[in-house]
């Protein structure tokens, strides 16, 4: 049973990582324009509590056993605090995953993945998604913020998009 859980979890992580290689450019324009629109952390927190906390937790703690897929193959919602992996990803991936949802985002790349992350593109505007991401990032310790910022900066530079 442990081998099956490990295999499913490993496959899910691999699918997410492979999909992320292909999706960064889709969110680069919105991320690059973030400097043109000031973020509103209070609005981001409110939007997070209204739209995200039911799965990811009011304190960004995620669901129990978030690294192990359930019987349906779906991984529980991960934490968005410093204990999770959210800070490992550039803004463009966070934006696209939120806007399109996990299943659709990876399907666009030819990857079949049973994600529990729904799409919020019809619920939240691009600036609202950016506010939620900014709120989440504001809760991280300085170390995680710096690492994530450097990954975002590298992502923007590698896509040829100026900030």
Assign the CATH architecture. Answer: Orthogonal Bundle
Q: What percent of residues adopt helix (DSSP H or I)?
A: 55-70%
Q: Span from first to last CA?
A: 47 Å
Order of helices and strands: HHHHHHH
Strand elements, count: 0
Count of folded domains: 1
The shape, in one word, is: globular
CA radius of gyration is: 15 Å
Structural class by sheet pairing and helices: mainly alpha
Q: What ranges have pLDDT less than 50 throughout 5 or more consecutive residues?
A: 4-26
Mean pLDDT: 84
Q: Tally the helices: what do you get? A: 7
User: What's the CATH class, please?
Assistant: Mainly Alpha
The major β-sheet equals:
none
Portion of residues in beta strands equals under 5%
Describe this structure in words.
The longest helix is centred in the first third of the chain and has 31 residues, at 2-32. This protein has helices at residues 2-32, 41-51, 53-56, 91-100, 102-107, 126-138, 142-158. It has seven helices and no strands. Residues 4-26 have low confidence and may be disordered.
Write the layout of secondary structure elements.
Blueprint: H1 2-32, H2 41-51, H3 53-56, H4 91-100, H5 102-107, H6 126-138, H7 142-158
Helix pairs in contact: 1-4, 2-6, 4-6
Quick rundown:
With 163 residues, the chain is mainly alpha-helical. Helix content is 56%, strand content 0%.
Keywords:
single chain; about 160 residues; mainly alpha; Cytochrome Bc1 Complex, Chain D, domain 2; 7 helices; about 55% helix
């Amino acid at each position: 049973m442990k081998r099956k859980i490990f295999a499913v979890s490993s496959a899910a992580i691999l699918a997410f990582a492979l999909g992320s290689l292909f999706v960064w450019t889709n969110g680069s324009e919105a991320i690059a324009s973030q400097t043109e629109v000031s973020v509103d952390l209070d609005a981001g927190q409110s939007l997070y509590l209204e739209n995200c906390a039911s799965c990811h937790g009011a304190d960004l703690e995620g669901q129990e056993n978030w690294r192990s897929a359930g019987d349906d193959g779906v991984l529980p919602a991960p934490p968005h605090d410093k204990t999770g992996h959210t800070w490992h990803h550039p803004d463009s991936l966070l934006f696209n995953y939120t806007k399109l949802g996990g299943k659709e985002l990876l399907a666009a790349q030819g990857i079949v993945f049973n994600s529990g992350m729904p799409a919020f593109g019809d619920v939240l505007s691009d600036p609202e998604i950016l506010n939620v991401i900014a709120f989440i990032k504001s809760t991280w310790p300085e170390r995680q913020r710096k690492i994530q910022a450097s990954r975002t900066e590298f992502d923007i530079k590698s896509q040829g998009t100026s900030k």
